[in-house]
Amino acid sequence: MATPATSSRNRALSAEELDRFGAELDALRARTLATLGARDARYIRNVVKAVRYSNLIGRALLFAAAIAGGLWLADSAVGWLFWVLWALGALSLGLGKILENMELGHNVIHGQYDWLGDPQLNGKSYDWDIVGTADNWRYTHNFRHHTYTNVRGLDDDIGYGLLRIFPEQKWKPFYLAQPVIAVVFALLFQWGIAIQNLKLGRWWHGKMSSRQLRVTSAPVVRKMGRQLAKDYVIYPALAGPFFLPVLLGNLVANGLRNVWTYVIIFCGHFTANAETFPKECVKNESRGHWYLRQLRGSSNLRGGFLMNVMSGNLSHQIEHHFFPDVPANRYAEMAKEVRAICARYGQHYNTGTLLTQFGQVCWRIVRHAFPSRPPKFAPLRHADATA
């Protein structure tokens, strides 16, 4: 197994059991896809409306705050009105950005709603409201991360090239600074996502020419420019001389979205019971073995409807990694069957509260900033068979 913490929680499966495990999960996916219809279409279109109105209300409140700020200059008694309007505007805009990023953009880009035939919800053409391009995300996330989940050397999401989160990662003195780096990374998370596929480390070490870097980075730079212009030039300029409250409101809204996204994503793969795997485990990997690796590399969050929506249903990270192309609003009901299947095969279903799971993530970040030895255990093998 991949960590001592989980090795005692999972029963080793024979090759036959592993095949049945995969077949049961495949059958659940097929049953769910067969029932997609009006309620799923209604759900995602309601999310689109929620994003639109949250953004509209947030921007309206920020403009109102800008006007109140002008009145404040003339009458100090209305100063409270500025702060109330500004805070509500930043929160509403932040909510809209979170919903667009998590429940709309991320899930649509996975192709979860391609069956609708709606060009606005097409996974191959949708672009989202962050500085990173959807095309890069389709490669780094949809392909590499979901194919090689938590496989060391193949999944770039393990630490994102900045953090040492697992003891199997080689320690360097640079990691001593990672508790601080982790905070900065959370605040600027969309920027880290934007440059993830540029391979700046290769350029820094002379393995990529500056010309190659310019070519590969051109779409990202253009997207960054459009986002910066929209959030920090165009919308603030519409407020005229009171542009500053609008600019700061946009900055806070983006920060709220960045930190929330960081927390949810890190809780999905870097808790105490999450595992990493060596490259050799994916050689000749069967369907059942792939499901098993997704299960042991993922973590869920307990919570109700609000948690599910605000996390883009990544509160069901296990189900998302099992079924990334199934509409995420179905994960909560699928989770009941997934958990029962895992129990039948003696596999630990990793779930916990947001506070518990993120606390474990923070501990990993602090602990593995310092030298630590990889645990002594047998890694997950192909077929994970006892026979």
Automatic annotation (TrEMBL):
Keywords for this protein: Membrane, Transmembrane, Transmembrane helix
Organism encoding this protein: Pseudoxanthomonas mexicana
Coiled coil ranges: none
Pfam annotation, one family: FA_desaturase
Residues covered by the Fatty acid desaturase domain: 82-351
Stated name of the protein: Acyl-CoA desaturase
Transmembrane regions listed in the UniProt entry: 56-74, 80-99, 174-194, 232-253
InterPro entries: FA_desaturase_dom, Fatty_acid_desaturase
